[in-house]
Design goal:
single chain, alpha/beta, eight-stranded parallel β-barrel, 15 helices, hydrolase, Glyco_hydro_1_AS, glycosidase, beta-glucosidase activity
Amino acid sequence: MKYAFPDNFWWGSASSALQTEGAREGETTWDYWFAREPNRFHNGVGPQQTSAFYQHWKTDIQLLKQLNHNSFRTSISWARLIPDGIGEVNPEAVDFYNQVIDELNEQGITPFMTLFHFDMPMAMQEIGGWENRDVVEAYARYAQICFELFGDRVLHWFTFNEPIVPVEGGYLYDFHYPNVVDFRRAATVAYHTVLAHAKAVQAYRAGHYAGEIGIVLNLTPSYPRSQNPADVKAAHIADLMFNRSFLDPVLRGEYPADLVALLKAYDQLPACKPEDSALIAEGKIDLLGVNYYQPRRVKCRDSAVNPQAPFMPEWFFDNYEMPGRKMNPYRGWEIYAPGIYDILVNLRDNYGNPRCFISENGMGVENEQRFIENGQINDQYRIEFISEHLSWLHKGISEGCNCLGYHMWTFIDNWSWCNAYKNRYGFIQLDLETQQRTMKKSGEWFAATALNNSFEKE
């Protein structure tokens, strides 16, 4: 069967500054944490060992061209542009980002720019990070500077990438710095992130720029184990906390009433100011990026909560391992392609069918060298993964969902937070020692799909 996509569909991939660029002027939380606890990082590989986009940007953009990308998302590093977060702008960073943006445009690859992709300047974290409203103001200034510097040539902006992840990682589950476990502080970080987002949107609108502004959210559909009311309620609460805590403010301009009521009942609400609700209402977006990797399957709790334990989302649900589920054994994630369709249908039916695109989807695999044939990685498993997700995406579009494109994570094997290079995700294989780049079989497949704006699947 042939799956053809709408004209001007965005074919591309996504990456981030911290995971690709390498050496920076300003220190981020990742640099700081790695210097102190290298044992927390896979094989002791830190954020300095990247695919060196800072040096290789020109040839890497040529590779994007070979992959027939018409669009590409990356991020600006706040710590590179303004090393202390609030002071002088680094002219070398301005030159670098200008060159990258100009080269992308020249090659016919539309730049999509994210302002914050987990890389908090350490100077900002030292005064409390997103817990401190002064950092919200500093971020708003940084956003405005980016719009002024690059807004004439970047027409698609995203305030944050996966803003729930620093909340989960840094303040609930101990996989990002500052490794705090405290729900109220997590709620404050999430709330201030929404305020920062809204301030950036406000600045963008005030500047009357030619493009559009949005946010990138990782949406994990919450599926209940059964239709038993207790399971359904558990899935609803998981959805409120992990999806709707950002989705509702940016699309509806307000928080879900039942989320607010739940946090209030347990005395976990962040401190709010009277003017905040009007600001949040101004943060409604033009374009939503959707990152989809895996579903969330939940059931009601089988056991009572320990009242001495820290308040956590899991007070309200347990994770559920569905029998017979298809797994990516390397990442420990379930592969469930219909989830991408369910997300789009939910946006269509419950959020007014906003303009959106798949901003990340991907499959990380360990030790891909096993699959080298004639000097090339034959990653047929990745081709199957992409084509399966694209066929469900196609179904959503054919049923009226307003999805404008598909970006894969990622174009080249890159450094991945605490996992370093354990799992590879790229269309392009990276040899870390020599920095040599070699296209995988999936890269050839994606290039053909993008060129034809369609693919065939049995």
